[in-house]
Design goal:
- The protein is an alpha+beta fold.
- The protein has helices spanning about 40-55, 150-155, 170-180, 230-245, and strands spanning about 1-5, 10-15, 20-25, 30-35, 65-70, 75-80, 85-95, 105, 110-115, 125-130, 185-190, 245-250.
- The strands form 2 sheets. Strands 1, 2, 3, 4, 5, 6, 7, 8 and 9 form a 9-stranded mixed β-sheet that branches. A 3-stranded parallel β-sheet has the order 10-11-12, with helices on one face.
Length: about 260
């Protein structure tokens, strides 16, 4: 038997596409053909993963099911399958003889692998990576490598001197250029979480990859405003990005934290 696409083949499709699978018999026989797959049952696998993570329940892979293929001429079967879920899936065709003989599987140990991407990512995927700290007064640069003498004196006296940072609202002021002029459609932000500012501080500003709380934002990235908290100002940025038809990605360094982190994942 021969399956198209071939076992072991790795396909990339977009959500909304249609996958065509055909099965051709070497010698025509009476019987039925099926496609065994987990396509269409992504929610089942996600529930099993959550149950395994939270309750240590075994992953039983109950998302697999058999879809009947329609006859398409002598010794040939076909299936058109709409791709409605995003994720990584597998599939393989098999044949059930009418005479009660053993089921026949397509040659090859591997399944066909299908990665379904979101339809929104098919095009217009230019990414603009930004570091909030470098907007606003930090845009001119040079603060970390050549501090002024007044800052150097405080350094020698043992003070933690951290110059003003760019803010979420500074980034908002640049969005018309980033999204409108440069036509970037994905805004990727380096970590926005609080970091150590005294003991175990890395560099003058503190490393953005030494987060102390993954569920909060660094207050240095907010303007003083009695009507909006730092988190609310970050939400303003998210709304401003979405209002311009773009998306926002956040870099979250979940494999390490800063000194005295309070985050529990």
């Amino acid at each position: 038997m021969r399956q198209i696409p071939l076992p072991g083949e790795r396909l990339i499709r977009m959500r909304g596409d249609c996958l065509e699978v055909t099965l051709e018999m070497t010698e025509p026989r009476a019987g039925r053909a099926f496609l065994r797959t987990n396509l269409g049952h992504g929610a089942v696998r996600r529930q099993e993963i959550v149950a395994h993570t939270e309750r240590h329940a075994p992953v039983l892979e109950t998302d697999w099911h058999d879809l009947p293929m329609r006859p398409d001429g002598e010794g040939r079967f076909r299936l058109f399958l709409p791709l409605v879920e995003v994720g990584n899936f597998e599939a393989k065709a098999w044949f059930q003889p009418e005479d009660g003989g053993r089921n026949l599987w397509v040659d090859g140990k591997e399944n066909t692998y299908i990665k379904v991407e979101p339809a929104a990512t098919v095009c217009a995927n230019i990414i603009y990576t930004l570091f909030t700290r470098q907007f606003g007064p930090g845009k001119a640069g040079g603060q970390e490598t050549a501090p002024p003498e007044s800052m150097a004196r405080l350094d020698r006296a043992g003070y933690a001197v951290i110059p003003p940072s760019g803010t979420f609202r500074d980034v908002i002021r640049e969005l018309d250029f980033i999204i409108g002029k440069l036509r970037c459609r994905i805004i990727q932000m380096l970590p926005i979480h609080p970091v150590p500012t005294t003991y175990a501080r890395m560099g003058r500003f503190g490393s953005p990859f030494a987060a102390t709380d993954f569920f909060s934002v660094d207050p240095a990235y907010a303007e003083f405003d009695t009507r909006a908290t730092p988190m609310e100002q970050f939400q303003e940025l998210v709304d401003a990005v979405h209002a311009r038809g773009a998306r926002i990605f956040i870099d979250i360094p979940v494999n390490h934290t800063g000194w005295a982190s309070q985050t529990q994942l």
